[in-house]
From TrEMBL:
The chain crosses the membrane at residues 6-27, 39-60, 197-230. InterPro entries: UstE-like. This is DUF1295 domain-containing protein. Coiled coil: none annotated. Keywords: Membrane, Transmembrane, Transmembrane helix. The keyword Transmembrane applies. It comes from the Bacteria. Pfam families: DUF1295.
Amino acid sequence: MNASALAVNLAASAGAALTVMLVTFAIASVKGVHRIVDIAWGVAFTAVAVVTWALSAGYGDDGRRLAVTLATSLWGLRLAFHIARRGRGHGEDPRYAKMLARASGHPALYALRTVYLLQGSLVWLVSLPVQAAAYLPEGPDALLTLGLGLWAAGLAFETVGDHQLARFKSDPANRGRIMDRGLWSWTRHPNYFGDFLVWWGLYLCACANWQTAVIVLVSPLVMSALLIWGSGKRLLEAHMAHRPGYAAYAARTSGFLPRPPRRPVHRTEAR
């Protein structure tokens, strides 16, 4: 691996992620709706992957470069499109409205610091395996194949889960009800579990040698922490906790790793 070329790439990818977030911030400030930063999350990962593809030509194996670029871009653009379609016609996300309501100082600058710049930094950190993989001279191997398989399983899982939820919500008869069908009966968060598989899969794509594997391990660990304990599962469940039927749903459905739903316990009173 050419360390100096990778260092240049790391700087350029940081610039790409920052540019996406700053452009999004400018648009959001004009529209007065900061929820569009969620769309920028997937776009920023795609931008990092494309910049890495362009800069790594002649340094890494072409097959590995192409695989990680396409995998990251497909995941990022699908996610961005899904979030854009889901949020069409809606106002501000309650999470951001609540955050800005308690902001110290100017709300827009507070959002810039705590949302846009933070997310840009996380994009850069989480995408380290994608950047490192593009500079590996080793050709396709078993770990690359396994990684792409895990990525494909994760992408399929979250895509199916998102589609099932969208269909459920489109039926007026389901208004106010908890989605507990399909993949949502096996895990309360098919989309987050899918992302979990995607990023561990992309990590394996960068494991052609043990040195790189150790250095970039921080990335899937950070993404896993975000999905389970950070802005993913934890915040969503806190928002859903008081909805009718959610406690019973949570009691029978896995919080993250898929498994068959538990059967309800029927207690009989002593006579």
